[in-house]
């Protein structure tokens, strides 16, 4: 027996006319949706007195127990992660190369997850908008649909009028049949449209749920990776401090010296002349520089040595190989208007709050700290007369005099722009400013950035 045989409507001549499965399914689904929506306020209102009458409902107790268990599970996982981190760091011991490689690998992983999160959020935005549009379309037809559904349900649930005992019931059924005879042919096209809308809505909800599950997993992974990265950075800086006994004093002196200069070039010169650790780094860069590449081509294999103490690739020969220091969208370009009558000397990247900042190349830190309107400023001597200036971070995690490798984590972004005076139009979002200099003069960094992911150098 066909599953739809018990559900009928009537045409204008009074003949029985079966509803198609597609139409019936759409109407039943929509009916359930509207019934649930209609019942929600009533349920909420009826539940209120019950909640007032009893101190805590069993459902509330169960929910609290589940929340407590979730919290305990999170604490357990956090404790396990901390123990694993301690074991990993102990295993690294004094092996600098292992620590460097771990830092680069985890930082790369963090930025990869950040990228996936941004891509998932971008996919969700149009899906969420479309879901709202479909829901709004269905809601706008609520009154008419509910009336017809009520009539269809009465006709489908009751036996034919001849078998009814009360005349009133028979009359009501006849009136319903007459009503249906006038509206069903007109409703059929609308019902098919409803079926299509409902089908799209169901598919949208499934897709959105899948994307949100992926987003949740990536966010959990990012949180764990960030904890691991923070522990490794702390260990790196602890070892650096053990080597450089006067790190704190040097840092304080650097900030005092920065107040005595007017511009960036003055700051670089002052640091590399007057500050012991920065001067040592500059001298090392000048003496060793970057090794010449055989045949004029960079030796990318040299980047695989995490124990190196000088640049693996000559800066001048590394064009087209660098990755941006942070995941973000370029909003200002070298040579463009700076909004104050001048031209941009670097590029600006709009980023996510808390984004990881890594070094685009090998280099020595000659300044790390606040500087005027730049907020937190990091300056690297890349050898060969080149300097990299990175500004706008909330927190810097390297010290002056330290040699850092390509892809190594050096800072994190805040939640708002730290270079608001430079980028007044985008002061509400985190913005990273990057400037390349050759022999003290700002240059276009464009030729050094990789055109695509596969061309970027990795440590």
Taken in chain order, the helices and strands follow as EEHHHHHHHHEEEEEEEEEEE
Q: Quickly count the domains.
A: 2
Largest pleated sheet: 8 strands, antiparallel
Oligomer kind: single chain
CA radius of gyration is 33 Å
How many helices? The count is 8
What is the total tally of β strands?
13
Whole-number mean pLDDT: 76
Are there runs of 5+ residues with pLDDT below 50, and where?
A: 1-54, 158-165
The helicity comes to 40-55%
Strand-residue fraction?
5-15%
Write the layout of secondary structure elements.
Blueprint: E1 8-10, E2 16-18, H1 21-53, H2 58-92, H3 96-140, H4 142-157, H5 167-243, H6 247-258, H7 264-274, H8 276-288, E3 328-332, E4 347-351, E5 356-358, E6 363-370, E7 376-383, E8 386-393, E9 395-396, E10 403-404, E11 409-412, E12 431-438, E13 441-443
Antiparallel strand pairs: 1-2, 3-4, 4-12, 5-11, 6-7, 6-10, 7-8, 8-12, 9-11, 12-13
Helix pairs in contact: 1-4, 1-5, 2-5, 3-5, 4-5, 7-8
Write up what this structure looks like.
- The chain has 459 residues and is α+β, with helices and mostly antiparallel strands.
- The protein has two domains: 8-241, no CATH class; 262-455, Distorted Sandwich (Glucose Permease (Domain IIA)).
- It has helices at residues 21-53, 58-92, 96-140, 142-157, 167-243, 247-258, 264-274, 276-288, and strands spanning 8-10, 16-18, 328-332, 347-351, 356-358, 363-370, 376-383, 386-393, 395-396, 403-404, 409-412, 431-438, 441-443.
- The strands form three sheets. Strands 3, 4, 6, 7, 8, 10, 12 and 13 form an eight-stranded antiparallel beta sheet that branches. A three-stranded antiparallel beta sheet has the order 5-11-9. A two-stranded antiparallel ribbon has the order 1-2.
- It starts with 7 loop residues before the first strand and ends in a 16-residue tail after the last strand.
């Amino acid at each position: 027996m066909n599953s739809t045989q018990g559900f009928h409507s009537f045409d204008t001549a009074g003949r029985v006319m079966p509803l198609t499965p597609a139409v019936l399914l759409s109407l039943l689904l929509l009916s359930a949706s509207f019934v649930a929506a209609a019942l929600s306020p009533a349920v909420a209102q009826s539940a209120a007195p019950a909640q007032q009458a009893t101190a805590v409902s069993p459902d509330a107790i169960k929910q609290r127990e589940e929340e407590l268990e979730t919290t305990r599970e999170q604490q357990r996982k956090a404790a396990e992660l901390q123990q694993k981190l301690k074991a990993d760091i102990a295993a690294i011991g004094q092996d600098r190369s292992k620590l460097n490689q771990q830092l680069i690998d985890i930082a790369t992983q963090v930025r990869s997850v950040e990228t996936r999160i941004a891509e998932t959020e971008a996919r969700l935005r149009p899906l969420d908008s479309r879901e709202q549009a479909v829901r709004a379309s269905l809601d706008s037809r609520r009154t008419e649909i509910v009336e017809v559904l009520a009539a269809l349900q009465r006709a489908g649930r009751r036996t034919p009028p001849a078998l009814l005992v009360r005349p009133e019931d028979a009359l009501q059924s006849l009136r319903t049949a007459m009503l249906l005879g006038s509206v069903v042919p007109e409703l059929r096209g609308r019902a098919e449209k409803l079926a299509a809308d409902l089908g799209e809505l169901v598919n949208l909800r499934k897709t959105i749920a899948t994307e949100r599950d992926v987003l949740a997993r990536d966010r959990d992974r990012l949180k764990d990776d960030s904890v691991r990265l923070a522990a490794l950075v702390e260990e790196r800086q602890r070892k650096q401090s053990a080597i450089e006994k006067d790190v704190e004093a040097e840092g304080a002196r650097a900030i005092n010296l920065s107040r005595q200069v007017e511009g960036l070039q003055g700051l670089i010169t002052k640091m590399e002349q007057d500050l012991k650790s920065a001067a040592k780094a500059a001298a090392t860069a000048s003496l060793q520089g970057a090794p010449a590449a055989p045949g004029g081509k960079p030796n990318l294999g040299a980047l695989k040595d995490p124990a190196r103490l000088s640049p693996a690739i000559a800066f001048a020969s590394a064009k087209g190989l660098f990755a941006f220091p942070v995941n973000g969208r370029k909003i200002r370009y070298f040579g463009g208007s700076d909004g104050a009558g001048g031209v941009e000397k670097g590029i600006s990247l709009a980023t996510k709050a808390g984004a990881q900042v890594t070094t685009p190349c090998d280099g020595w830190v000659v300044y790390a700290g606040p500087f005027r309107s730049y907020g937190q400023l990091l300056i690297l001597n890349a050898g060969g007369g080149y300097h990299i200036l990175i500004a706008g971070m909330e927190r810097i995690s390297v010290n002056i005099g330290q040699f850092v490798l390509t892809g190594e984590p050096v800072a994190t972004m805040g939640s708002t722009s730290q270079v608001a005076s430079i980028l007044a139009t985008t002061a509400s979002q985190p913005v990273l400013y990057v400037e390349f200099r050759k022999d003290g003069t700002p240059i276009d960094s464009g030729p050094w950035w990789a055109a695509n992911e596969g061309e970027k150098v990795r440590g």
